[in-house]
Amino acid sequence: MDADALAKAFVEHYYTTFDNNRAGLVNLYQDSSLLTFEGQKIQGAQNIVAKLTSLPFNQCLHSITTVDCQPSSAPNGMLVFVSGNLQLAGEQHALKFSQMFHLLPTPQGSYYVSNDIFRLNYA
Amino acid sequence: MDADALAKAFVEHYYTTFDNNRAGLVNLYQDSSLLTFEGQKIQGAQNIVAKLTSLPFNQCLHSITTVDCQPSSAPNGMLVFVSGNLQLAGEQHALKFSQMFHLLPTPQGSYYVSNDIFRLNYA
């Protein structure tokens, strides 16, 4: 699988998990992982998923507009940059967002999220 | 200077240079640098600046809304995530954009842009 296909597969997996089983995202982070969510900095898989599961909405649906990826300087690391829309249940309009991930390989041959920065793009 | 202040100083320098002397951005990239601009992948300082200086507008003004940064796994590397508005001369409405930079240290104690991904956020 080339890097672009791998990035798209990661992105699809990430947002499908977010929308259907947010607590399951814990497997994608490690203790060293960093999330900056709307300017708030959080470190560690447990803390990150505690933040994501405590967001003030229950149902949401991400739809992805663009996925760009580049190799990072880390061995087999990958930078993934996403833009898309976030539809919350009961809200008329979708919210636009941008998010970046720095993925690093695990010894098991998979990837984890080393860095994650999320921002809503207010109109 | 802490990481947040350093990221903000870089961002201010980058967009001031972009808006006033776009060709001067060449000093911020190296031959290994990658730019993905609206999905188009470009490598190397000269090619990147050739792309940026050939964009179909002469005057523009970036205004920055948010700057987030995190240490990357690279030694002294830094991920910088920017959102903002881009006003082109003669256009009534500003364009919203998001951009991420992966900065790596130079032997001279400064930073260069190793990775750069830019996307307009269409309304």
Strands, helices and their partners?
The structure is a homodimer of 123-residue chains.
Chain A: H1 3-20, E1 29-37, E2 40-43, H2 45-53, E3 60-71, E4 78-88, E5 95-105, E6 111-120
Parallel strand pairs in A: 1-6
Antiparallel strand pairs in A: 1-2, 3-4, 4-5, 5-6
Walk me through the structure.
- The structure is a homodimer of 123-residue chains.
- The first copy, chain A, has helices spanning 3-20, 45-53; strands at 29-37, 40-43, 60-71, 78-88, 95-105, 111-120.
- Chain A has 123 residues and is of the alpha+beta class.
- Chain A has one domain: Nuclear Transport Factor 2, Chain: A, CATH 3.10.450.
- In chain A, strands 2-1-6-5-4-3 form a six-stranded mixed sheet, covered by helices on one side.
- In chain A, a hairpin with a 5-residue loop joins strand 5 (95-105) and strand 6.
- Chain A is globular, with a radius of gyration of 14 Å.
- The termini of chain A are far apart.
- The model of chain A has no long low-confidence stretch (mean pLDDT 95).
- At the A-B interface, strand 3, strand 4, strand 5 and strand 6 of A face strand 3, strand 4, strand 5 and strand 6 of B.
Please describe the structure with a list of short key phrases separated by commas or semicolons.
homodimer, 123 residues, alpha+beta, Nuclear Transport Factor 2, Chain: A, six-stranded mixed β-sheet, 6 strands, 22% helix, globular, cytoplasm (chains A, B), protein transport (chains A, B)
